[in-house]
Prior knowledge:
The chain is an all-alpha fold. The chain is 70% helix and 0% strand. This is Rho termination factor N-terminal domain-containing protein.
Amino acid sequence: xxxxxxxxxxxxxxxxxxxxxxxxxxxxxxxxxxxxxxxxxxxxxxxxxxxxxxxxxxxxxxxxxxxxxxxxxxxxxxxxxxxxxxxxxxxxxxxxxxxxxxxxxxxxxxxx
Length: 112
């Protein structure tokens, strides 16, 4: 079952727990994978393991989709914020001209 190799550590932990295996807190990814593959459930009821793995991958995809949607909304908000700032700058630019902001030095006439 090559799909197990695609799982992250936390996903392997969930799969192991779903098929009734005891998982120790400090287990590494390779240990979790070995625990699953060496289990009687894996050997005798491969469909249960396959289902748990598919659920884990589906949950990852859902989370990824949600994260993408959140990022899109964040970017939309940032764009609106920048458009508002630009509109404010343009509005302020209409109230004052550039020449008013740049005062020229008065001419110095030397009187002798």
